[in-house]
Amino acid sequence: MLEPGRGVPTSLETPGGPMDPSQNPNIVHATTIISVRRGGHVAVAGDGQVTLGHTVMKGNARKVRRLGREGQVLAGFAGAAADAFTLFELFEAKLDKHGQLTRAAVELAKDWRTERRLGKLEALLAVADKETSLIISGTGDVIEPEDGIIAIGSGGSYALSAARALLAHTELDAKTIATEAINIAGDICIYTNRNVVVEEL
């Protein structure tokens, strides 16, 4: 379940699908998140825009946070805001209980297999600690990216492309790359802005 495999995308978005803000005019959406690793450090960054249909409701939302007793896990969420907060809280509870990122993600995935009440949440989490980066979906899937880069939300593909180019052709650190990737996505994606919040381990 956690093994990276061929054809597994590290950017998860669904244009025209249930997580596309333009397809759900009455649902509050929050996007875009990216996680980047370099030089023994990991950074998670997100923009500040919250969208209701085609209207910007807020420009300075904080979608990236530190979790765990010592803030040893970084998490960012994208998708329908109510579902994203629910997924975030479910994961945080597992992390508080088990204290380790991978174990918490696996235990949360198990709950989806056994508890029908969880259903399907229109949201994604990008979570990372010093060693591991994971995507947790609102359907209970857990994906480990091959290259250590995670990008989710409506601007995920733009942020992912920018981060890969900066990693390949510059010596910038993880925090700077994550910030610039969100800024570039914000220039292209109408559901993403340049009000960046970034955390680093």
Automatic annotation (TrEMBL):
Catalysed reaction equations from the record: ATP-dependent cleavage of peptide bonds with broad specificity
One term of GO molecular function: metal ion binding
Annotated EC: 3.4.25.2
Main location: cytoplasm
InterPro entries (UniProt xref): ATP-dep_Prtase_HsIV_su, Ntn_hydrolases_N, Proteasome_sua/b, Proteasome_suB-type
Residues engaged in binding Na(+): G186, C189, T192
Activity regulation, free text: Allosterically activated by HslU binding.
Annotated active site: T31
Signal sequence, renumbered to the chain: none
Spans annotated as Disordered: 1-25
Subcellular localization, as worded in the UniProt entry: Cytoplasm
UniProt keyword annotations, A-Z: Allosteric enzyme, Cytoplasm, Hydrolase, Metal-binding, Protease, Sodium, Threonine protease
Pfam families in UniProt: Proteasome
GO BP terms: proteolysis involved in protein catabolic process
One of the record's GO cellular component terms: HslUV protease complex
Similarity annotation: Belongs to the peptidase T1B family. HslV subfamily.
Subunit structure comment from the entry: A double ring-shaped homohexamer of HslV is capped on each side by a ring-shaped HslU homohexamer. The assembly of the HslU/HslV complex is dependent on binding of ATP.
Function: Protease subunit of a proteasome-like degradation complex believed to be a general protein degrading machinery.
Cited PANTHER family: ATP-DEPENDENT PROTEASE SUBUNIT HSLV (PTHR32194:SF0), METALLOPROTEASE TLDD (PTHR32194)
Protein name, per record: ATP-dependent protease subunit HslV
The organism of origin for this protein: Xanthomonas arboricola pv. pruni str. MAFF 311562
Species classification: Bacteria, Pseudomonadati, Pseudomonadota, Gammaproteobacteria, Lysobacterales
